[in-house]
Design goal:
Length: about 750
Amino acid sequence: MTKRILLVLLTSLAFAACEVKKKETSDNGQNSFIDSLMNEMTLEEKLGQLNLPSSGDIVTGTAASSDIGEKIRAGKVGGLFNINASKIKAVQKVAVEESRLKIPLIFGMDVIHGYKTLFPIPLGLSCSWDMDLIEQSARVAAVEASADGICWTFSPMVDISRDPRWGRVSEGNGEDPFLGSAIARAMVKGYQGDDLTQNNTIMACVKHFALYGAIEAGRDYNTVDMSRMRMFNEYLAPYQAAVDAGVGSVMTSFNEVDGVPASANKWLMTDLLRDQWGFNGFVVTDYTAINEMSAHGLGDLATVSGLSLNAGVDMDMVGEGFLTTLKKSMEDGIVSEAQINAACRRILKAKYKLGLFEDPYKYCDEQRQKTEIFNDEHRAKARELAAQTLVLLKNQDQILPLKKESKIALVGPMADNKENMAGTWSVAGDFKKSISLREGLEAVVGQGNVVYARGANITSDSLLEKRVSIFGKPTYRDNRSESAMISEVVKAAQGADVIVAAVGESAEMSGESASRSDIEIPESQRNLLKALLKTGKPVVMVLFTGRPLAMTWENENIPSILNVWFAGSEAGNAISDVLFGDVNPSGKLTATFPQNVGQVPLYYNHKNTGRPLPEGGWFQKFRSNYLDVSNAPLYPFGYGLSYTTFEYGDLSLSTDSLTMDDELTVSVKVSNTGDYDGAEVVQLYVRDVVGTITRPVKELKGFEKIKLAKGESKTVTFTLSKEDLAFYHQDMSFEAEPGAFKVFVGPSSAEGKEADFYLK
Ligand code: BGC
């Protein structure tokens, strides 16, 4: 061996040893770094770290922050959120150059479904059932946001909800905890990657912990009350999945849990989250959630702030209760210094993990800003994913896909509205850059083949319209009479082969503080649809919505309905891809559509009563039903059509009797029997026939999205073990019970092949 080779070998061994050491000491280094920093901090500076003012650029609560610059200089701010990205570097400079200890700020934002490149709203994304694409959407969002200075996102929102009156169903993943958990994992992975110290990953914040989606009557911020068993079996799994996936932070919810608002709920924030689930990141409140506990009836600001800290909350969003009251509460013995230190340490740890102490400007990268935000690659991804989220609800006479030679009459209040394509909670978006449906169609058939007429306002109620024309998403009210607008449309339709009607909700008719007691399509638009039907032309309804709607009339009368949610920056292109058949629709609903609002809450994984209706039945005296509507949904969970057809073979089980240590495989052959290549979401549900507590009639326990060329067949195999069959009991133990089970595999929660097995 030559001297030179030996030298290289020794050097590389030494280098490897040094790398290992660096890794070892970096964890220890974190603690000793934070210890020595905290030794230098005054109590006021520690409380400053717990304070999260808003930039004032976006205000969602009843209060806003003030004198932020002064407070940063005085060490009274831990981070900022929803700040216009162009200001981040300058604001960070104030923190690291003008405050005594030069502690960098953490910058958060509601990056909910994309940053500048907007993806479909989360409810839409969930309908793709494609975990890989969902993860990629979060990855793109992280790359873009981090190039612009943001290192922390208030996402994923994983609140299970069974109430479409609640506007925030648009921000979640629907009604199922199994699917919701898979999406929670995919989103956390997409944002945080494998390494938070990279400059293109950001810290996720799972929200709103907990149970926010179960608010009474679907009225935002309302009371929640449910049994522990329901919490654990039906609502908590997605939050836990995010924790298991390593989410860096958790946001409290506005609602109460077991009589105590989440932000003061020690059982929730400490016993469950930290002690049982092992969460070791930090907890931030929702916007002024601490202050709001006074209105909940828990006491004055000092009292609720003390309760919140003692419950295990670390950071106070906007309200400044921690900043202004905790010093005195400590002197009065209401909170301890140890608790303040613990909260401060957790926040400093997050900043350390993100690498902010090493380089406070690492997320402000002018080069990356130029090349990595809203670029062609990201837009192509958004288009691809958006097309996967569209759900074909009806397609009588195969009106769809449209022929590319068609002359199209395009009508409706959402047909030519770029600003509304993104949907709710799209803080950073430049809405004018979204592709409208009109642009999408024109790009395929040419401008001359699309005749546009508006036909109706979103609603004839101008006050309601004003309430939903906010956050830079105008609905462009047309002040002509309803009949004048309709006659224009009827004329426009004369020379057309097909009418495409873009109707439903505007983007801000769902989202925060956008609950509706009437979840039908507004009358102005229904009148338009009636007039369109009278023309005798085929009508395709392109449904924009942020929630399941009660659209029984539309389902009965309109031949073709494509639900497009709010599909993001590339909406118009993605919708056109599906309308013309370049992409075969494969989205499946993740929230039940009721026949009318009176059936709400209506969800597939319900319990049986002691007086169930026979399947498919309607009214029977002294049975659990309504006089005026059947129990069936309009469209069930898991439902969605394709341009092709799929046939399911019989189920084949590896055994019909398994022990607690066995695994059961369930296989089914799925064949594409129609005329188009397509994709199908194959869904597996289980029913535990006899239990020591009542069990749901069906629960999703597996799914796989498969692509099948026309004429092709594939066998899909699922594996079930006792963990999949386990549930929480009255004593909160989590285990499977021996006994009979049914397994169903099919294209939705309402259809499929069935088999029986026994767990010994
Ligand atoms: C919402 C949160 C959001 C926060 C910060 C609140 O009003 O409930 O979801 O993350 O504002 O913008």
